[in-house]
Design brief:
Shape: globular
Number of helices: 21
Largest sheet: 4 strands, parallel
CATH class of the largest domain: Alpha Beta
CATH architecture of the largest domain: Alpha-Beta Barrel
CATH topology of the largest domain: TIM Barrel
Number of strands: 11
Number of domains: 2
Distance between the termini: 38 Å
Length: 481
């Protein structure tokens, strides 16, 4: 008989902590919460207009092609395995089956709640998020020893994010999810802008909270830390950055790499914006996106700092060019080029040669990060960032690769994705993850860090009592000790 997820859990000797399963919201039970949170007028407005996700679900193929509407998810939840579909919708059934799944504790994120933090109308956005969060808190409170649902935090402004963080805390929620960023209007768009980096007529851009954000989000990170919430980000909770989905006929094409493409600039923006420098004790979780790209990002940051830190920029300063030597070299070695050029002003031509461009007002692009040596980059990246990986993700091994800078071990965390299409059998997820050990891709210690130590530390750093009263209490207390 083949090994089951229950068998795996019994054999490994430590808990399995899932930081990213999903609920499938039973909307008739959600609507009373939305009505209460929004009041009758806003509620009627909400129910009589399609949700952000619904707006793209029902678009026909011809319209997609004409409007470049991306093909979104279809057949996205279990069907033939009807028990798994019901498990995603009924918290009592999921609670009953967690031992079968080999999971000690699970943090659950929305499905029907995707997109609610990106609603453009401010009153609707705040009311819908508030109502969904009240539903999550009430519905999953009886099962809090084995699972918790995460609140959704709208982030169009720091003030609304702080208000909903405080609301989630009052509701007793222990985890929250931030959208990966916010779509914003360009203050003064130039509709015939010749820039190759903008689409013709582009009027909006995507703000990833850190570099060049019009708002200071430090008060949000400070409030999350104060209230005991890790800063967890899940793609799809708000506006989707343009470019993640581009095919009008093929959802699989759109889905491959999309969560990575959303989280890569977010992680980069938070780091380069100095957030981990200013909040060294706050954990950030990037969910359902893998970790292989994060290894590459860390190496890229180090390589760029080596070449473009403030001291090394001096070798690139056009003011240091020896123009007399340059002209002598042209005359001694470049006669063929001069012959092709004909009668020219050589001095003017030479001065147009370097790729100078217009530097920013402050050329120290690392001023927010406070980096003195390469090791500082590792020390401000690895401890704060956690990366959600699904059970079949072989790139988890990259997190533990010996070639990582300074022997760094990045922090992948188990993200089951329970209730969604990429989990064929809920009761096989942990067994599939442990298959990476059987195949020699991970060691038992790697697996322990992936499904237990890293998820525990992600959640405990801000809230040492996170697992008090749960099935994982004793093991996580021992880990902390």
């Amino acid at each position: 008989m083949s090994e089951t997820s229950r068998d795996v859990r019994e054999s490994i000797g430590h808990p399995v902590l899932d930081v990213d399963g999903h609920v499938i919201e039973f909307m008739p039970a959600v609507l009373p919460y939305l009505r209460e949170a929004m009041g009758p007028k806003l509620f009627e407005k909400y129910v009589n207009q399609p949700s952000p996700i619904a707006k793209i679900l029902g678009v026909d193929t011809e319209t997609r092609a004409q409007q470049r509407t991306p093909q979104s998810a279809w057949w996205g939840t279990p069907a033939q395995n009807t028990r798994d579909l019901a498990t995603g919708a009924i918290p009592g059934l999921m609670y009953e089956r967690l031992d079968e799944f080999g999971i000690d504790y699970s943090v659950l994120y929305p499905t029907k709640g995707f997109g609610i933090a990106g609603i453009v109308d401010q009153d609707l956005r705040l009311g819908v998020c508030r109502g969904f969060n009240e539903f999550y808190a009430d519905t999953y409170r009886p099962y809090q020893d084995r699972m918790t649902a995460a609140g959704v935090i709208p982030t169009h402004t720091p003030e609304e994010a702080i208000a909903e963080l405080e609301h989630c805390k009052r509701l007793g929620l222990k985890a929250v999810g931030f959208p990966e960023g916010v779509t914003r209007a360009i203050p003064k768009p130039v509709l015939d802008n010749p820039s190759p980096f903008l689409f013709p007529g582009q009027t909006h851009y995507f703000d990833w909270y850190g570099i060049d954000s019009p708002f200071d989000y430090d008060p949000v990170w400070a409030k999350a830390q104060e209230l005991g919430f890790a800063a967890m980000f899940h793609g799809g909770l708000g506006n989707m950055p343009s470019g993640s989905f581009t095919a009008t006929t093929n959802y699989t094409f759109n889905h491959i790499g999309s969560f990575m493409h959303r989280m890569h600039p977010l992680c980069k923006s938070l780091f380069m914006g100095g957030v981990t420098n200013r909040f060294p004790n706050l954990n950030f979780g990037f969910l359902e996106c893998g970790v292989g790209w994060a290894v590459i990002l860390l190496c890229d940051i180090i390589e760029h700092w080596e070449k473009r830190n403030l001291e090394d920029l001096k070798r690139l300063d056009p003011d240091t060019i020896d123009w007399q030597m340059f002209e002598q070299l042209f005359n001694s070695h470049g006669q063929a080029l001069l012959d092709k050029a004909g009668d020219i002003d050589l001095d003017a031509a030479m001065r147009a040669l370097p790729g100078a461009g217009t530097p920013p007002d402050n050329i120290d692009e690392w001023r927010f990060v406070d980096i003195q040596e390469k090791r500082d980059i590792v020390d401000k990246f690895v401890p704060n960032f956690y990366f959600g990986c699904e059970a079949d993700d072989r790139t988890i091994a990259f997190a533990f690769a010996p070639g990582n800078p300074f022997g760094a071990r990045l922090k992948p965390v188990f993200s089951s994705d329970l209730s969604h299409w990429d989990v064929p059998e809920m009761n096989a997820v942990v067994e599939e993850a442990h298959g990476l050990v059987r195949k020699g891709i991970l060691t038992e210690q790697d697996f322990r860090e992936f499904v237990f130590e890293n998820p525990a530390r992600l959640l405990l750093q801000q809230n040492p009592d996170f697992f008090v009263g749960t099935a994982a209490e004793s093991a996580t207390q021992a880990l902390s000790a």
